[in-house]
Amino acid sequence: MTDATTLPSETGTRGGPLDPDELRRIDAWWRAANYLSVGQIYLMSNPLLRVPIEAEHVKPRLLGHWGTTPGLNFVYAHLNRAIMARDLHMMYIIGPGHGGPGLVASAWLEGTYSEIYSHISQDEEGMERLFTQFSFPGGIPSHVAPETPGSIHEGGELGYSLSHAYGAAFDNPDLVVAAIVGDGEAETGPLATSWHSNKFVDPRRDGAVLPILHLNGYKIANPTVLARIPDAELDALLRGYGHNPYVVSGDDPATMHQAFAATLDRCLDEIRAIQEQARAGELTERPRWPMIVLRSPKGWTGPDTLDGKQVEGSWRSHQVPFADARTNDAHRTVLEDWMRSYRPEELFDSTGAPVPEIARLHPKGDRRMSATPYANGGLLLRDLRLPDFASYAVPVDEPGTGAVESTRVLGTWLRDVMAHNPDTFRMFSPDENNSNRLQDVLDVTNRTWDAETVPGDDHLARDGRVMEILSEHTCEGWLEGYLLTGRHGLFSCYEAFIHVIDSMFNQHAKWLKVTDDIPWRRPIASLNYLLTSHVWRQDHNGFSHQDPGFIDHAVNKKADVIRVYLPPDANCLLSVADHCLRSRQYVNIIVAGKQPALQYLSMDEAIAHCTKGIGIWPWASTDAGAEPDVVLGCAGDVPTMEALAAADLLHGFFPDLKVRFVNVVDLMRLQDDREHPHGLSAADFDALFTREKPVIFAYHGYPWLIHRLTYRRTNHDNFHVRGYKEEGTTTTPFDMTVLNQVDRYNLAIDVIDRVPRLRDVSAHAREWLRGKLIEHQRYIREHGEDMPEIKDWQWRSAGTGPVAVTEDAATEAPEG
């Protein structure tokens, strides 16, 4: 790697571009940020050390992370110099998220913090409040959180800094994103994959990411891998990822300031040259983007040793270097000496405000990284231009007929969404866009790709807008960064494997929940998931591809954030998708099949049904004007079909049976309105599901979720839910439903068992239904596919199914 200390120096002193005044001011900023960072971790009063530190000045509980913070402050100061010198739009994303005190300190020094939080003023009183609030009840977290101005990266979990940074850079041609990758974070799988994001950047229309790998050597208690491998090996690794790495290494502040300033200038020059070449049409090969490797001591500028043990440059400085400063007089003296080593009297005036030379060492207005609108994406968000989804409707002459791939229909609409929004909408998928039947979007764009292409490649181009990489983590990170900076997107994924990003979803959902209560954070476009290739059509892939549990995981989050939709057909899917792309500040989960399936509702009916989120299908019911004997409920495309087939069988067996058929699109409608904004009132729920009649519910996912959502309902004890029970491997589509007892035959038997008046007249019907289950098993084992009457089943008018069984007589088993 190129050692920055050997780069040719420009005018300046000590071998670098900074003149003596610039060097002094940058070092002063750095010292001020470090002082404020230490104060946040340790103090609750006496912020300017006007008197010696006493026990009551120290917080009773010391929380936070010091080790990474001085390096982050060092980089921030130098980026400010570059922004002002070059008039840059720049964002700062830090992977070592627990360096939170540094980012809060920088925002306070820049004035942004006091503008947003007026009680944290730029004076002694405000500094005291700044210190006290940190990791304190009623205050702020220790990491870079939504409350931190300039942040889009929670930092509570490691691995996503680069993917968030690249997501922010896509379609933002004037933006430079400085992404600090911690060397602990660099050991995570998501981070290791996200180095490949540079193969998806179009320098003509995208911004740039400047990765800065911060090697300070230690995690909580262990050394980091990348800090302990030979330089040549690290250089080969980073060059293999497609970067041109420069190293800044050392611990002497003056030398490091000059080296880093020279290196940063070199990297920004290279970025500008790449973009200028590309935008002039002169770049024909994928560029090698620059990056920086910063080697600095863990806990730089902190206590060198304590009680005879190494602190600076060791794992002991990772969190709070010593935690008993309140009760240990000697340690409190070490704390005071440490804080006074930054010479606060040179940094803050008599009122506690930053001295003028510090106040001038940052950009103005929205050029400040703590005030950039790119980090408050709702400020930049514009509505999508959405074509009228109703014009893409599937004709439905009779309900329960046809054979349509619902996601393919959606793909035609998304094609035109993409065409209408060439700079603000992207689709993300882990190599599954075509598999999920969304390939029509490739009529108007390509897959994003800036690596090698060979003849026969399909729709690969640098300016493509379909983002595909076989990493759910990277797709999720890109999309989150894209949304958080004011754009829109859709993530399509196989249902079973969306679990790969469970934890990333957690962090984003929590971000949305917190920002709902932060007035200066503007709402962003919703995070939209399309989950297809779902559990009921993974018969060929087997058990490993069967898991509908992401919905369960999602509904654990705050009700204000989560929405779950299970459209039963293509027209409902179009209506739901349009709604989701228009929404703000939610996580929307849409589950829809890609295989040919029956269609039930005309577009007008679908719009009405989706608007209500739940409703009775009169054409499938026989209880009009009367109290039902049983309610057949369903949610999900395959469960809807099986519930309808069960209703058809029951209509034929028992013409006088009063069946109410209820379909659920918006799953949250099942919840109490006191628990979820979409929830039904008790009166509305009882009107649909009755107060005492049996309810047989066929559900797409794990059945216990329906019980969780309805446990407060009057009739909950009579809810009997069929869903996925972890049964099934390589088999036929219908056998998947049979193995999990969500098939038509088992549903019909369940109704018979739950309706008291059928018990004495149902023997023949039960025998016929159980015979069909036996016949099904024999047939698939012999023929390798489902019976024709299953494969070709379509809805027939109520009452024209199997021959009736009445209370007076039981007839022969019905046909068909």
From TrEMBL:
TM stretches of this protein: none
Highest taxon above the source species: Bacteria
Similarity field: Belongs to the XFP family.
Domain Xylulose 5-phosphate/Fructose 6-phosphate phosphoketolase N-terminal positions: 19-379
Required co-factors: thiamine diphosphate
Ranges where the Xylulose 5-phosphate/Fructose 6-phosphate phosphoketolase C-terminal domain occurs: 594-795
HAMAP family: Phosphoketolase
Keywords, alphabetical: Lyase, Thiamine pyrophosphate
Protein name per its UniProtKB record: Probable phosphoketolase
InterPro entries according to UniProt: Phosphoketolase (IPR023962), THDP-binding (IPR029061), Transketo_C/PFOR_II (IPR009014), Xul5P/Fru6P_PKetolase (IPR005593), Xul5P/Fru6P_PKetolase_C (IPR018969), Xul5P/Fru6P_PKetolase_CS (IPR019790), Xul5P/Fru6P_PKetolase_N (IPR018970), Xul5P/Fru6P_PKetolase_ThDP_BS (IPR019789)
This protein's record includes keyword Lyase: yes
Enzyme Commission number(s) from the entry: 4.1.2.-
Example GO molecular function: aldehyde-lyase activity
Taxon lineage: Bacteria, Bacillati, Actinomycetota, Actinomycetes, Propionibacteriales
